Amino acid sequence: MHKLLIFVHHPFDQWNAPDWFPKKLEQEFPKVSVLNLPDYKRVDEEIVDAEIVIAWSIRPEQIAAAKKLRWIYSPAAAVNQLMFPELINSDIVLTNAREVHGPVVAEHVVALIFALAKKIPGSVVLQEKHIWGQQILWDEVPRVREVAGATVGLIGLGSIGRAVAKSAKALGMKVIAVREHPEKGSEGADGVYGPTEIDEIFRLADYIVLAAPVTATTKAVANAERLARMKPDACLINVGRGPLVDEPALAAALREKKIGGAALDVFPKEPLPAESPLWDVPNLLITPHTAALTDKLWERHYALFSKNLRRYLQGEPLAAVVDKRKGY
């Protein structure tokens, strides 16, 4: 028997594996023994003989103790929390859920673009005050604008970036992107730049979308210097991970009206503390890490994981393998 250990306990309900998930796996894969832990109390003892693990994160000492562990499936797309030497230097295969989240997060990006372009947050505030704000909204700078004809700049051209590019093109937008290896292709973008040309994305785009993994080169990729290169009516959107943005620099740029607006779905510390100054920054739209939410989430996880589990049991290469040296 192959032991599969699941420990994805989280205070937010949807991040936890539903009861049907392990039951369906056991029915479909009789040679796999599935243990879904309700919390983290027994992880240390159960991981010792586990062959496969589904988890958000694992401690280095648990990796050292898991002598039979061969494969980790992360239900997240970002795996920077797992990038420690004990795992990187091991033979354990790490796969993630980037293909699960990409299309859903891309929908959220499009929603944020429209919300910023059409000043939806401002309309909601005026509605709560019973104010007919047509003139008010029009007089605000930057003005309400059309999305068609605007330029989306993608920092990252993975599963999220590719899906955003497809949707943006369908809306009549121009798409430019930066990726580590431009020679791999445009993925539907009108122009692709290398990492050394990232400043051009900030200079040219009307909507800059951060959808890159967190690595040593992408931390604070949206820093004060690059924010200063943006058009005065351009907007920044982050659906990647919180560390991609220099938050104090972004807050300053918005308060000083050097850029048109921003939308953040992810933060270095979550939940965002009630005392965070970001709550009161003008022209900043905050969504509470909801970009990947969908009622089909665990059905998508099951489709991807079960496909990979079948491959694993047959000795075939797995899909969505993370390059542990690169961190994505």
Can you describe this structure?
By secondary structure, this protein is of the alpha/beta class. It has 12 helices and 12 strands. Strand 4, helix 4 and strand 5 (93-95) form a beta-alpha-beta unit. It is 33% helix and 15% strand. It folds into 2 domains: 2-99 and 294-313, 3-Layer(aba) Sandwich (Rossmann fold), CATH 3.40.50; 101-286, Rossmann fold, CATH 3.40.50. A 7-stranded parallel sheet has the order 8-7-6-9-10-11-12, sandwiched between helices. A 5-stranded parallel sheet has the order 2-1-3-4-5, covered by helices on one side. It has helices spanning 20-28, 43-46, 60-65, 85-88, 98-117, 120-128, 134-139, 159-170, 198-204, 224-227, 247-255, 297-313, and strands at residues 2-7, 32-36, 52-55, 71-73, 93-95, 151-155, 174-178, 191-193, 207-210, 235-238, 261-264, 284-286.
